[in-house]
Request: fold
Amino acid sequence: MEALFTGLGALYLAKCDAAKTGQAFQAFLPAGFLVRAAERLLQADYHLEDICAVDCAEGYVVVYHFDHFETPGRLTLRVLAPHAAPTVPSIAQLFQGAEWHERETRDFHGVLFEGNPNFIPLLIDPDMADCFPLRKEEKARARAKDMLEAGEVVFCHPAFTLMTPDAPVEGNESGGAKPATA
Reply:
């Protein structure tokens, strides 16, 4: 399964305890590698289960769950989007169901998915389009490392500090770290 992530600029790759987390692997990627990773998973016959976001101190962790009907092992991709400009590329052109999940994530958190073909509010009244009910106040945001299961680290880019004990808060450069070949 690790081979699926080769050449995708992984910043962090970890094996997970499926009984505990429901996933076999997780990877943090720079936003610029997200579409390429989704293409690779589509070619490997993975399907998209959902997209959501977690509002944490360092920014929005946008979470993508993928699974396979024949090969056990749910995969989770994560991308960090800063609070100041929460934008990631859309994967709706690859996975039909992504459009709905991206719209829902925008409605609740305000994360924009660049390239989504139908980015009108889905669940929130259009008159309240700038009201994001799942956004937290700054003082209520926990650090990502405290909310996300780290797993058994397979690879961690030296500049990626999001999951380390001394991870800097908002404004850190870990989301923009140079991608590796892991």
